[in-house]
Amino acid sequence: MTAEREGHEVLAAREGALLTLTLNRPHRLNAVNLPLYEKLVAELEAAEADSGIRCVIVTGSGRAFCAGADLKAHAETPMTEEERARYVRTAQRANHLIQTMGTPVVAAVNGHAIGAGLELALSADFAIVAEEAKLRLPEIALGTFLGGGVVYTLAERVGVLKARELVYLGDFFSGTEAAGMGVVNRALPAGEVLPAAHGLAARLARRAPIPLAEAKRLIGPAGTLSREQALERERAALEEIFRTDDWAEGVAAFREGRAPDYRGR
Questions:
Q1: What is the mean pLDDT of the chain?
Q2: Out of 9, 38, 119, 214, which one is annotated catalytic?
Q3: Which end of the chain is more exposed for a tag (fewer CB within 10 A), N or C?
């Protein structure tokens, strides 16, 4: 059964344990503005609070994933300093939620992902991208600056040297090139992106949610942890998981030769 609630800037559609959030400003190639970020934050916070949602998919309506900031709107109606601060902080909140919420997030990059759009895709745990999609981080070339944690999410994927090249120069690269560099997980024909993302999300939704959340929490900042810190955090997580019903269910399912039924407790 599919439940759908519709807003203007972001559409939210739930099907079982999967929630699909669709950036919905196709007339502007889903360029971000404050209302879009606010709606996205609200939907992500609601998803994190709902134990029945096991995976979130973020995609775009129309032919683009997200063309970045709505610079045309910025030029037509300049923001006050207070409005700019609210915009930046809300954008950072949206990316921070995607990166840190216990629920895994899959970006289905159905088309172009520029600037803030690529920032959102890089914040996700997995990104599946259309082969011909144009990707770019043009901020420095435009006299502005990065957001969404790109200073670490990109370097985590491609290393510091390649991250500098992509950020400093701001050149376009394709979805196929992005997969080859390790910026994204897979590049596929545009029509296959969303079905592949749903297939991946369905697999993730069947995993035990508590260990999955712990893995997400620990793997992300792995490069900043010492060996001793990483081992200690893994130990603490494992001892806590041993106390969960899901751990007992996993053991029982293995013994009985059946698929486990994880409940997140």
A1: 88
A2: 119
A3: N
